[in-house]
Amino acid sequence: MLPYASRQLQEISSMTKTILSQKADHLPTPPHAPQHPTLVTHHDIAVTDEYAWLRDSGYPKVETPEILDYLKAENAYYEAAMAPVADLTDTIFKELKGRVAEEDESVPSRDGDWLYQWRFAAGTQYRRWYRKSAKDDAADWHLILDEPALAEGHEYFRLGGLSISPDGRLLAYSTDTDGSERFTLKVRDLETGKTLPDHIEQTIGSPVWAADNTRLLYRIVNDNWRPYRVMAHHLGDDPAQDLLIYEEKDGGFFVHLDKTQSRQWIVIASGSHETSEVHILPADAIETPLRVIAKRESGHEYDVDHAGDRFFIRSNKNAPNFRILSAPENDPSPENWREILPKSDRDYYRAVTAFTSFLVVEQRRDGLDQIRILSHDGTRDDFITFPESTYRAELGGNAEPDPTQLRISYDSMITPATVFDYDLASGELITRKVQKIPSGYNKADYATERLMALSRDGQHIPLSIVYKKGFKDTAPGPVHLYGYGAYGMGMRPSFSTTRLSLLDRGFAFAIAHIRGGDELGRPWYEGGKKFARHNTFNDFIDAADYLVEKGYATPGGISASGGSAGGKLMGAIANQRPDLWRAIIAHVPFVDVLHTMLDDSLPLTPIEWPEWGNPKADAEVFRYIASYSPYENVRAQDYPPMMVTCGLNDPRVTYWEPAKWVARLRARKTDDNLILFKTNMGAGHGGKSGRFDALYEVAEEYSFILMAFGMAK
């Protein structure tokens, strides 16, 4: 494609102005949400909410006709607005689909006597799972789970967990067919192919087998979608009689369930966003009392693995970037913890996996992913060397307790997803698979950079940017900027086949590694949470200004996107600097922060207080959240064109948050720019579930962006 010149970036064509106007000839009148003001008062501060009625009183069921009619009207308006670019959307969808290998399969991974593999068949949206004997190269592969068959007849499908019994005979799996993330657990006999009568509702995550192959541990979610119990089910018994193993009483803690790499211990971890407590249980004696590793202490986060006769602990006690420690199996209490890797300002320890002969520490050094190998006797401390200077690398599936090779997942902004096996003896990286892109991809046609933008308070904000070669010769050009900035979830410089549809049309795509994520360690996260939340928004805006200052973009020549907490970011930057953005896309946006954090009956509110603060209990927190919450700060000003999405069954960001936000934006904004709002009526937080259905939603997003830049032809 021809580069998009600076002069063209400063004006949108008259056709595009018409398409992006809510008064366009082809559009009906935008849906109108009536205002029914509700007054909420806390700490002697009154807040009016005109659209509180959009929350169905029967939630999580949504059955109020007035609400459903409004959401359907918004969907109809969305379809009408996107109709003029239907051909473009179809073109982009074909591009996206053309980069997906219709027939694809994973690299087989060994677990005991078996090799396991998933496969996509041509035309299918979901995987099939297979296994074969690891002892016989000539053995046939056998189908053990057929996702397309399980998904048949459902608008939405998601496999939640898949766990094989220690003897390899039984498969426990869970499925969600409406996006509510409340999974149904079933068990299949892999020798007979029959599904057992055991059928357990309201579960979440992967189940864990006891060593006896007859008992299964699983988590239950309560009415507020909080995982709060671990139960043990004996095959053939009535689930109503299942044994309660653990119940978390604190509404601010979620329960997690896992098994150590050694498979000898079951791990039950309770945690909030800043505090954790781990209990352990022998896998061969689940009826014994739980043992706690370290009692919960506010602000202390830790996790545990096991090998040999020791536990290995990653702890942030007196170490913001964590330390790595070990403790004897017979008494792993904190007074017996022995330090293996000390705290560091440079090294941020993200995970530790304990194999029989060695430890693997996943960390970041100077913000760059590292995988570190340490022998238990202290004679080895190696970093795996990767072929590029900036990349994403992490452990892949490594089921064996004592492998000779490590499975690693790797990619970069210009390198497709790659599966390596790292040979522990030779140090060789063996390439097992490189992502297939059937329509073609030449890495040499693209370039990537790591930039450092200066924030208004003197911090350096990392930016990962990728573009097709030649972009800088004609810059400034169209730029798309992505961000998240919450929960310590760093956005890494990874590869995307979908992104190519923008790059090939002359865009640069940038990721702003803003505070609130953990890209530069735990302090980077702490610098964007609670009373430092404004740093997150400021960093994103400062990153955009930097791209303008350095000649990559022009003012108003940047589109932006984010989802969930990143959708909150989109709402904040739209309120604070609407002039910067050519278009904004907010997926499942968490935009009604104040009212959600005031309502402890909602699924995530209590566990979210450590991240955002509790405005119900603290007037200062109330005022601070009110100062940035996107819904509270919609004002009478011009806003850029915006696309907003949500899922009706989303338990994480409830549908009424974006619905209220869009209604208030329409009522208060002073421009005619288009605001589109689409509700997935049969899905949840992740949008549509099929691999091709999800791509079509990306194609719609890209069409909207191209409309905004006058590039919709």
Automatic annotation (TrEMBL):
Gene3D superfamilies in UniProt: alpha/beta hydrolase (3.40.50.1820), Prolyl oligopeptidase, N-terminal domain (2.130.10.120)
One Pfam family in the UniProt entry: Peptidase_S9_N
InterPro entries: AB_hydrolase_fold (IPR029058), Pept_S9A_N (IPR023302), Peptidase_S9_cat (IPR001375), Peptidase_S9A (IPR002470), Serine_Peptidase_S9A (IPR051543)
Record bears the keyword Transmembrane: no
Keyword Protease carried by entry: yes
Domain Peptidase S9A N-terminal span(s) in chain numbering: 31-432
Keywords assigned by UniProt, alphabetized: Hydrolase, Protease, Serine protease
Residue ranges annotated for the Peptidase S9 prolyl oligopeptidase catalytic domain, each copy included: 493-710
Family membership: Belongs to the peptidase S9A family.
Name of the protein this chain belongs to: Peptidase S9
Organism: Iodidimonas muriae
Gene (name only): ptrB
